[in-house]
Design goal:
This protein is mainly beta. The chain contains two helices and twelve strands, in the order αββββββββαββββ. It folds into two domains: 98 residues, Sandwich (Immunoglobulin-like), CATH 2.60.40; 49 residues, no CATH class. The protein has a five-stranded mixed sheet with strand order 2-8-7-4-5, with no helix packed on it. A four-stranded antiparallel sheet has the order 9-10-12-11, with no helix packed on it. β11 and β12 form a beta hairpin. The N and C termini lie far apart (109 Å).
């Protein structure tokens, strides 16, 4: 038979457990973020922060979830985690209670959506490099290649233009002048209509 004191303690502990606070909200900053940018994820408590519990944070990007122990000293609410998302997309970041070693699960769960945009620097296509000037056998470069990649090669005595035209960069055309023993790539002439 239970005594009135034991009944009172049972009711009081049940009521205290029911009133226990837990995980309240997840916030990501900045949101939206850029791919490769550090994001600060803050998990706050609802009501009075619990002093001793465990939780796990899922990032939804295929990386390993992070376990967090709340012990009231080093680990306490609000919890801030720095995370970098490598790819653009929409991620659902979730914090939920979980038993970790001797820490019983924090009460509740909370989720936040994070939008990660592509890094604008990564989206820019690399500028096309001009084709390096390469003179055929028996020819030497005259001067330096121009800004557009245009160049002229001068042939030695008895040098003949190559049988196959040289490859030129975009915006340039191949030319050969047998009389002057010159070959190369020059800016393309505009076509007349």
């Amino acid at each position: 038979m239970k005594t009135p004191l034991s009944i009172f303690l049972t009711v009081a502990s049940t009521f205290a457990f029911a009133q226990q606070s837990g995980i309240g909200a997840v916030k990501a900053d900045p949101n939206p973020a850029r791919a490769g940018q550090e994001v600060k994820i803050t998990i706050s408590a609802e009501g009075e922060a619990p002093a001793f519990c465990g939780m796990v944070v899922h990032f939804d990007d295929g990386s390993e979830s992070r376990q967090v122990k709340i012990d009231g000293k080093e680990g306490k609410f609000p919890v801030t985690i720095a995370k970098t998302f490598a790819k653009a997309g929409t991620y659902s970041i979730k914090a939920e209670g979980r038993k970790i070693t001797s820490h019983f699960p924090c009460v509740g769960t909370a989720t936040a959506k994070l939008v990660v945009d592509a890094d604008p620097a990564a989206a820019k296509p690399a500028a096309a490099k001009p084709v390096a000037a390469a003179c055929p056998d028996g020819f030497k470069m005259q001067g330096k290649a121009g800004k557009a990649g245009d160049f002229t090669c001068k042939g030695g005595k008895g040098a003949a233009a190559p049988a196959k035209p040289m490859a030129c960069a975009a915006g340039l055309e191949y030319f050969a002048n047998d009389k002057a023993r010159q070959v190369g790539c020059r800016k393309a002439k505009a076509q007349k209509k």
